[in-house]
Amino acid sequence: LNSFGNFTASADPLPSWAESDSRDRIIEFVAAVTDPQRPEYVTPAERIAVFDNDGTLWAEQPVYFQLIFAMDRLAQMAKDDPSILTTPVLQAAATGDLKTVAEGGHDALIEVLNASHSGVTVDEFQSAVADWLETARHPETELPYDQMTYQPMVELLRYLRDEGFKTYIVSGGGVHFMRVFAEEAYGIPPEQILGTYMDTTYDSADGGPVITKADGIAFVDDKEGKPINIERTIGRRPILAGGNSDGDFAMLEWTTAGDGPRLGVLIHHTDAEREWAYDRESPIGKLVDGLDKGPDMGWVIVDMAQDWSRIYTGAN
Amino acid sequence: LNSFGNFTASADPLPSWAESDSRDRIIEFVAAVTDPQRPEYVTPAERIAVFDNDGTLWAEQPVYFQLIFAMDRLAQMAKDDPSILTTPVLQAAATGDLKTVAEGGHDALIEVLNASHSGVTVDEFQSAVADWLETARHPETELPYDQMTYQPMVELLRYLRDEGFKTYIVSGGGVHFMRVFAEEAYGIPPEQILGTYMDTTYDSADGGPVITKADGIAFVDDKEGKPINIERTIGRRPILAGGNSDGDFAMLEWTTAGDGPRLGVLIHHTDAEREWAYDRESPIGKLVDGLDKGPDMGWVIVDMAQDWSRIYTGAN
Ligand SMILES: [Ca+2]
Ligand SMILES: [Ca+2]
């Protein structure tokens, strides 16, 4: 069966995608922009593809995995020094009380992020993330978080690279957090990961210079921030963009409004059985504008339940 | 002669470098990190090389070329609408009066940049830069500015890429300005150009979304800002860094303090005859710390007069 699986994979670039209009349109787009004989041809240098991460490349329920990491880390830090839990929000976070953190809204989130993400060097922070990924398990699937990547999207990323695309993550998640697993999980190197970031400081200490994470979010890579960050950092307009929520609307709009062939792809979470079903009313991954306006803009709306024959990389 | 020139270039990766210790040390470093049999071997993915631009890859006298562009653009804009010159500084800038602008210090510089660089879309701005490069000539050399690139550095960039390095610019100059010419001049694509940037806004207008340059500098890519930007954007510590002023000190320090083989390169402007000679006392490209501490840190100090057999790409 294994060798048959390999055979299938080499014949079919998207083996975990069911026969579907979504799959056909993606393959047709790639065929068009990579064929020098066709008018839609795009040179390799301009084949930039950008993808949101949470809810697009891996799962995001019951809450963004980075927030689970933040709360786990806070609990761990409090074991050594309980006095760091200076507010009711931090005390709640350290016990895994998501409800209280969520009720605190944006301010509570920043409080938890500052307490768990700052005051350490980038190297220390990334070691902590790596350690957490080794041992933490998702409360429902019991999978390691970095095995809750979507196998169809891992295949799509690889397919695009095989066809000369440069694949990027452009995510509301933190750059330092994502860089720990994205190369192994998605084949995307650190320099192709854009995201939210906190301020950092550079200090030339006795033991050599260090870069330390500071309090406060310097840039939020969400909504209009996504095309702004793409323009600022990549300096080219992508020809393909994938996302799953209204936080990706501007990125897909910016991408698909360019001249020539463009593709926008939205992952619609329709699979309550194998994953989660949510869109218009969800506090995480809210999707309204994309469903209302995306189809008229030519975007592919992926129906997860129908279009994907497999969900997680870490489970068949 | 032309075919002989090509033959020489293919035999010698750095034909515009004189026989010198600087040249030998660069070639020895590249040989060491690219040979899988040697302990200093570095995988291609980690072969990140970063370079300052002004004074390192192209000239910067009598003043940063981007400031000359800003003043020229202001003069052009004032032809259509003289009322934009609302202050004595802007009036001076529009007449090319560098002295008054320089005396105004940082505030005057920001004033000139805001007036000449903001309120236009990125596309419009970059068209204006391209038009300027076509026609503007340097007051002393009479060369187009983008031919005042240093031929030895253009060769070094190409040599590094041929040896599997990824070459980046990390400059105090503006990203939108540099991206107009850097790909043709240096072979460095937009996504490998880091620099200072202004805020931009994303607006979804009737004619399609636009990204517009706004007033104010959002990030200054100089001094400690350079390693911070490298860490944030590239996410790997470079193994080679080149610069020419104390604005590059932190970048070279960060690069060369890493484990394993590292190389720092400082261009010392010693050539009053073919270029300019300046260092400790210069308002542009001031170099003190690099000369005092660089040699002990193992940095290569390039003596432009001695080590380069040719200066500008655009002139023999
Ligand atoms: Ca998302
Ligand atoms: Ca410089």
Q: Would you kindly provide a written description of the structure presented here, covering whatever features stand out?
A:
- Two copies of one chain form a homodimer.
- The first copy, chain A, has 14 helices and eight strands.
- Chain A is an alpha/beta fold and 316 residues long.
- In chain A, strands 1, 2, 3, 4, 5, 6, 7 and 8 form an eight-stranded mixed beta sheet that branches.
- In chain A, β3 and β4 form a beta hairpin.
- Chain A starts with a helix and ends in a 9-residue tail after the last helix.
- The N terminus of chain A is likely disordered.
- At the A-B interface, β3, β4, α11 and α12 of A face β3, β4, α11 and α12 of B.
- The structure holds calcium ion (2 copies).
- The site of one calcium ion has 8 residues of chain B, from loops.
What are the main properties of this structure?
Rossmann fold; 8-stranded mixed β-sheet; globular; homodimer; alpha/beta; 316 residues; binds calcium ion; 2 domains
Question: How do the helices and strands line up, and which of them pair or pack?
Answer:
Two copies of one chain form a homodimer.
Chain A: H1 2-11, H2 21-34, E1 48-51, H3 65-80, H4 88-94, H5 98-103, H6 105-117, H7 122-135, H8 151-162, E2 166-174, H9 175-178, H10 182-186, E3 193-205, E4 208-219, H11 225-233, E5 240-243, H12 249-256, E6 263-270, E7 277-278, H13 289-293, E8 300-303, H14 304-307
Parallel strand pairs in A: 1-2, 1-5, 2-3, 5-6, 6-8
Antiparallel strand pairs in A: 3-4, 6-7
One calcium ion binds at residues 52, 54-56, 244-245, 247, 285 of chain B.
